[in-house]
């Protein structure tokens, strides 16, 4: 007990010291004349000039592109000891870093003001509920509405004083949408405008829907029962839209990209991989597993749903200390693009936590183009939005490996990417490249997940197979040189024969709703 009291006393002393240091940087006295600006922080907070400024052994040795915990692989090891940011969490000599793919955007004008007001509302509600009488957390007051933002003048500044990126903006209609409720922002009526926007855009789409998201957990049922755990109906909207296109004889494509595995620490098929298996269970239940899954319902109406919808992911490879290695690219984006004319970009995952409003708090923007270029859609001339169309083309070129450095491929493929729903692009380019890349990876590496593993008992057998990266490195490198881009197929038959999830003892007490 005496030792515990000494530890508590030492902690309190450290807390008081830290608070005093913060107060010395930012004064909260009423009569203080210090103006808090970015320049103030640059002058007040010591900056790290070089490695010798940090008394940390982890920075010694060879130069590092990602320092300390910036070099991470969440499936191998989640973050620990965050108070030691320069300490490695994984062995960078043997474990490849997990790359991320993300999409964000900058908005100016009315939409930016609405994003700021959303932040102010959240801040003030949190202060009211948790720090009402703590003066160091100020109440935030929104600025007045202004109408003087034009294409030649941003916030009243001459053009030569405006950052270059703000002069290359696209003129669009932009609306801020949110998932907020009583706990997050203090409103009585829950706002779920993000899921409303998703469903409306899907219903109104005429040619294609392109989705990148961290999760795909949704409901396909028209009528929900009280026992249905998943509530949001984005998958049902996709089902109805595809079915309408099929019955009307229209060409309609849905591109859905999600990570090969959720970014949770653990191994599939073991008690350490409960979180991974739970998320995958709900992802696959939405996509293909069970009678109420999206593909199962479509298969009852359409002979070949793969002509309307496809599920994909991203993977990369390199050499690490002379060894061939591969790792999934973790898709962290939360975007939807429809018809090259409308985009939704923000923080909302496709699951109940992000979409229902009364659970996690999220914010997005829905963007409708007002300026257009002329391209093709299903081999016919088409007005493509300058923002949404260019974003979609950029993402597809990236995933297909169509880079400016490869001029021959660039010239050959660009015209095909311009028309995303033509049979040639859908079958001979997008799906063909995803399939080819997938097959090469599975011949060279023991990749997980894979369609070759349909039961948990198959995992060790599959991982024990001899693969080219060990048996014939020269041939493996030759095959890997044929991979273009990062696009691969999502293995829809992975663990298809498994029903039960292996739980650790403590995970049995976690409510299922936490995963949805």
C-alpha Rg, in Å?
Answer: 26 Å
Low-confidence regions: 21-55
Residue-averaged pLDDT: 84
The rounded distance between the terminal residues' Cα atoms is 43 Å
Instruction: Report the total helices.
Output: 15
**Helix proportion of residues, in percent?**
25-40%
Q: Largest beta sheet, briefly?
A: 10 strands, mixed
What order do the helices and strands follow? HHEHEHEHEHEHHEEEEEHEEEHHHHHHE
Indicate the CATH topology of the largest domain. Answer: Endonuclease, Chain A
Shape: globular
The number of domains = 2
CATH homologous superfamily of the largest domain - what is it? Endonuclease Chain A
Quote the beta fraction: 5-15%
Number of strands: 14
Class inferred from helices and paired strands: alpha+beta
CATH class of the largest domain: Alpha Beta
CATH architecture of the largest domain: 2-Layer Sandwich
């Amino acid at each position: 007990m005496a030792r515990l009291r000494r530890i508590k006393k030492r902690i309190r002393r450290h807390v008081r010291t830290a608070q005093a240091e913060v107060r010395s940087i930012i004064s909260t006295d009423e009569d203080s004349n210090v103006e808090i600006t970015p320049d103030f922080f640059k002058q007040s907070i010591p900056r790290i000039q070089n490695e010798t400024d940090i008394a940390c052994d982890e920075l010694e040795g060879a130069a590092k592109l990602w320092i300390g915990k910036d070099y991470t692989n969440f499936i191998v090891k989640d973050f620990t000891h965050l108070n030691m940011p320069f300490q490695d969490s994984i062995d960078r000599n043997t474990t490849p870093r997990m790359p991320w793919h993300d999409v964000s955007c900058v908005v100016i004008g009315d939409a930016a003001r609405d994003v700021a007001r959303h932040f102010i509302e959240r801040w003030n509600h949190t202060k009211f509920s948790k720090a009402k009488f703590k003066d160091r957390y100020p109440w935030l007051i929104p600025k007045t509405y202004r109408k003087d933002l034009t294409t030649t003048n941003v916030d009243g500044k001459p053009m030569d004083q405006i950052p270059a990126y703000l002069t290359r903006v696209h003129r669009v209609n932009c609306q801020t949408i949110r998932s907020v409720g009583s706990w997050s922002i203090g409103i009585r009526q829950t706002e779920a405008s993000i899921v409303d926007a998703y469903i409306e855009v899907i219903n109104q789409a005429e040619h294609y829907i392109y989705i990148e998201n961290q999760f795909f957990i949704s409901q396909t049922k028209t009528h929900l029962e009280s026992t249905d755990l998943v509530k949001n109906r984005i998958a049902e909207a996709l089902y109805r839209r595809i079915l309408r296109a099929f019955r009307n004889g229209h060409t309609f494509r849905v591109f859905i990209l999600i990570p090969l595995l959720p970014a949770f620490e653990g191994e599939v098929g073991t008690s350490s991989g409960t979180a991974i298996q739970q998320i995958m269970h709900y992802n696959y239940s939405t996509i293909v597993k069970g009678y109420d899954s999206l593909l199962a319902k479509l298969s009852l109406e359409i002979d070949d749903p793969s002509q309307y919808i496809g599920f994909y992911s991203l993977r990369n490879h390199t050499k690490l200390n002379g060894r061939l290695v591969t790792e999934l690219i973790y898709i962290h984006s939360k975007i939807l693009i429809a018809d090259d004319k409308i985009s939704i970009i923000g923080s909302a995952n496709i699951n109940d936590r992000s979409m229902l409003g009364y659970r996690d708090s999220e914010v997005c923007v829905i963007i409708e183009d007002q300026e257009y270029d002329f391209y093709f859609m299903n081999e016919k001339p088409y007005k493509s939005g300058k923002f949404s169309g260019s974003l979609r083309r950029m993402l597809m070129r990236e995933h297909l490996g169509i880079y400016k450095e490869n001029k021959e491929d660039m010239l050959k493929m660009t015209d095909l990417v311009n028309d995303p729903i033509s049979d040639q692009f859908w079958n001979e380019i997008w799906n063909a490249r995803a399939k080819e890349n997938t097959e090469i990876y599975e011949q060279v590496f023991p990749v997980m997940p894979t369609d070759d593993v349909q039961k948990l008992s198959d995992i060790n057998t599959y991982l024990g197979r001899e693969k080219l990266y060990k048996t014939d490195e020269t041939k493996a490198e030759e095959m890997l040189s044929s991979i273009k881009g990062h696009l691969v197929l999502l293995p829809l038959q992975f663990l298809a024969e498994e029903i039960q999830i292996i739980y650790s003892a403590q995970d049995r007490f976690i409510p299922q709703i936490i995963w949805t």
